[in-house]
């Protein structure tokens, strides 16, 4: 008499939102360029129930300079990607990650004297 435990209902399992490998490649490419420029030094990734967050820090022990968020529930409305500044203001929101990250790439452009 081998009684097997009941299989839990598939719909009740909590899911997490996370970045896909191709999304992380785009984000980490920008991160590497900003580290080489001396702007950023550390990052953190959070995968929560309704949002995935890539936080960028100038130093490890401070608040993040920028947060790159992925919210799939906003896919049909405003776009699921957003860049949020240190003060909580949304700098850019959209459907395409590369387009949204252009707001941060402007920091790399400097005048050469």
* Number of discrete helical segments: 2
Q: How big a fraction of the residues is strand?
A: 15-25%
Cα Rg: 18 Å
Lateral strand order in the biggest sheet: 1-2-3-4-5
Helix content: 10-25%
Average pLDDT = 82
Give the uncertain stretches in residue-range form: none
What class would the helix/strand composition place it in? alpha+beta
Distance between the termini: 83 Å
Succession of helices and strands:
HEEEEEH
Major β-sheet annotation: 5 strands, antiparallel
Shape: globular
The counted number of beta strands is 5
Commentary on this structure:
- With 113 residues, the chain is an alpha+beta fold.
- The protein is 22% helix and 23% strand.
- The chain has two helices and five strands, in the order H-E-E-E-E-E-H.
- The protein has a five-stranded antiparallel β-sheet, covered by helices on one side.
- Helix 1 (21-36) packs parallel to helix 2 (97-105).
- The longest helix has 16 residues, at 21-36.
- It is globular and about 65 Å long.
- It starts with 20 loop residues before the first helix and ends in an 8-residue tail after the last helix.
């Amino acid at each position: 008499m081998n009684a097997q435990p009941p299989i839990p209902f598939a719909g009740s399992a909590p899911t997490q939102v996370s970045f896909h490998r191709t999304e992380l490649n785009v984000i980490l490419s920008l991160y590497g360029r900003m580290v080489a420029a001396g702007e950023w030094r550390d990052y953190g990734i959070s995968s929560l129930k309704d949002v995935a967050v890539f936080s960028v820090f100038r130093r490890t022990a401070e608040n993040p300079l920028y947060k790159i968020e992925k919210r799939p529930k906003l896919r049909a409305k405003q776009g699921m990607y957003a860049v949020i500044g240190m003060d909580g203001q949304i700098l850019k929101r959209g459907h395409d990650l590369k387009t949204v990250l252009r707001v941060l790439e402007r920091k790399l452009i400097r005048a050469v004297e």
